[in-house]
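#random but structural
TW: two for the price of one
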Amino acid sequence: MNQFEKLTIWQDSLDLAVEIYNTTKQFPKEELYGLTSQMRRCATSIPSNIAEGSCRNNDGEFKHFLGIASGSSGELKTQLIMSVKLKLITEKEYEGFANRIDSLQKRNYMLQLKLEERIKTKKVNNKSGN
């Protein structure tokens, strides 16, 4: 049984998603079905895919879902840049979010490398065991 709730990358990405929800509450109502909705979906996608991947059957599947989470973080960062350009958030707010996203992306990448190494080790062990 995998306990994704103990993963700090999941905890931090969940906190980021909550903060995105709170920030987008201040966006104009006409953005509700546009940028607000898109940002919330991307932000929610990050911890959701980390959780889903960690609960899958093997490291390869987990790595795949980490890749999806990484893509969502890139989408979110793009939408935050757009939010600055539309003057929906300040440059300072953007920088705070961007730093957190960059940290999550680096940690995600390191976790993917770790999983890849475990996958390779299992393949070698399986070949030598035959």
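TW: number two ↓
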Amino acid sequence: MSISLFLAQVLGCYFFLISLAMLVHHQRFKKTMHEFLGSSSLISLSGSFSLIFGLLIVASHNIWIAMWPVLITIIGWFLIIQGLMRVFFPERFSKVVKDMMAQNGYLVMCWVWLVIGLFLIWAGFSPGFN
């Protein structure tokens, strides 16, 4: 199995399940997010995890082609950038996310990650999809 298929399967299932839970239990997740955003320590800690996962993805899958595997590479770079923001600028990160959640950003992001998750599941588990 190629690294692209493996990452598509894992990331696809993760994004789909988490975003589905966030849509179904949106009040609980919004409350959790507000509590989380109040702690610079938690933001920094989660940033270190985001940074390491992004670095692992990019180091193992830095593929820039005009096909679906580039999405995995973009996700890796997104995690690196988000991790750096959380580690170096936790207060700024918190403000940006709070502002986004005050709008319709929460629902939009849930649906975006759900669609990305479904696409990666399809790409990762479809036989012969390359």
